[in-house]
Amino acid sequence: MRAVPTKPLSVDDYRARVGALIRATPVTLLPLEHCVGLVLGEDLVSPVSLPPFDNSAMDGYAVRSVDVATPVVELPVAEDIPAGRTDVVPLLPGTVHRIMTGAPVPPGADAIVKVEDTDGGEERVTINATAAPGTHIRRTGEDVAQGATVLRAGTVLGSAQLGLAAAVGRADLPVHRPVRVLVLSTGSELVEPGEPLRHGQIYESNSALLAAAVREIGGEATVLRFVPDDVTAFHERIAGHLDKVDLLVTSGGVSAGAYEVVKDALTGQGVDFVRVAVQPGGPQGSGLFQGLPVVTLPGNPVSVALSFELFLRPALLAAMGHQVIHRTRVKARAAAELRSPSARRQYRRGRLEGEVVTPIGGPGSHLLASFAAANCLIEVPEDTEVVAEGDLVTVLVLDASR
User: Fold this and answer.
1) 166, CA 20 to 30 Å: which among 88, 159, 202, 308?
2) CATH label of the domain that carries residue 291
3) Could you tell me how far CA 98 lies from the centroid of its own chain?
4) Strand-pair category, 180-186 with 386-387
């Protein structure tokens, strides 16, 4: 007979249990194109200055400021300096060099006159403006000094950070490797999307939901085709995959009834099955199976989505080196009354507009359409059974733009 806990675990206690189970991923070198969204594992010190040499900020003419001290002067053009030229000839007094944006400033020049202030001449040029020393010159190290730390360990790498890494000459970076998650749904009633349904069957959606959720935060997901309610089939399906991943996540088969294949297959194998004081998603399981972290989720799709948000998402982000692992929490006024069961923390789907949040759909764990339409979760504490219209509530923001 299975032991049933006399008191469910709190949401916070179970979140901590899952967080402690999932190990930090190692730091490894990856090419820049594979680092988007990952976390830098070590400080990045620049081996070069940016700019690496004094260069022109404008298309125009490199001059000596003393030679253009009067507003209108005509001077010979001694050299052309396009961007990328490396054999820069020094500028002699009484001459100018035509120069392009980004090209190195020749020795002897101390200013750039932009082409708009000239007649654009190629052999001789009439200059119609004066230029103080330093005008339109980008100085060596003006942006980054050689030896400076340009990115700190723990930085989440986006387009700007990867552009900076490339600018200082890095083709790869030490990053926390993406967490590798094996996803398996269970249930004899499940049918692959795209196949015909018979009465009593439903399309399997949990693996698509979970795999996408893992990938959205920078992890890697491998999906195994779902298994029926058969213990032997369950073990056969995961065999050969466990040594290639950091975590196994299952959905379904963990409740108190018959045909609970995950519970039957993993009870006594290092996985503890518990109840959490949350609605939806009370039945949960976690532990080590053959040394591999395992988290088992309920089967209803909203329970799966919520369980990922509450328990897996923060644990996976932390394992990949992220400092910010929780959703933004704000206060909002409830646009309608909410009712919640005693002694359970309820999460309702909602739409947050300004400082008002409107519940979407009911509390049922099968109502996936309302989850897809939501941009937040409304948190109703364990000691609250009724939220009146207009009451302040805590909202977990799912929309990354807020």
Assistant:
1) 88
2) 3.40.980.10
3) 46
4) unpaired
Residues near 395 by Cβ (< 8 Å), separated by ≥ 6? 329, 330, 331, 332, 350, 352, 357, 376, 377, 378, 379
Contact 117, 60 (CB under 8 A): yes
> Is residue 79 located within the same domain as residue 122?
yes
**Is the pLDDT at 359 greater than 80, yes or no?**
yes
The enclosing domain of 357 has a CATH number of 2.40.340.10
CATH label of the domain that carries residue 71: 2.170.190.11
Confidence class for position 4, pLDDT limits 50, 70, 90: very low
Shared domain for 108 and 119, answered yes or no, is yes
Range of the domain at 40: 28-50+142-176
Asked if 377 contacts 330 with a C-beta cutoff of 8 angstroms, the reply is no
Whether residue 351 lies inside any domain: the answer is: yes
pLDDT at 258: 66
Cα dihedral: 208, 211, 217, 220 (round 10): -150
**What is the DSSP code string of 47-71?**
SS-BSSS-EESSSEEEE-GGGG-SS
pLDDT in tens, 57-112: 999 999 999 999 998 999 999 999 999 999 989 999 999 999 999 999 999 999 99
pLDDT of residue 332: 98
Percent of the chain residues past pLDDT 70, beyond the cut: 97
Residues 73, 207 within the same domain: no
CB atoms within 10 A of CB 28: 14
Does residue 21 lie in a domain region?
yes
How many residues comprise the chain? 402
For the chain, what is the domain count? 4
What residue ranges in 146-302 does DSSP mark as E strands? 149-151, 172-176, 180-186, 190-191, 202-203, 220-227, 247-251, 271-275, 278-279, 283-289, 292-297
Neighbouring CB atoms inside 10 A of 302's CB total 23
Q: What is the tens place of the pLDDT at every residue in 164-181?
A: 999 999 999 999 999 999
CB atoms within 10 A of CB 197: 10
Average pLDDT across the chain, whole number: 94
Q: CB-based contacts of 401: which residues, under 8 Å, 6+ apart?
A: none
Pair (230, 283) in one structural domain: yes
pTM score of the predicted model: 0.89
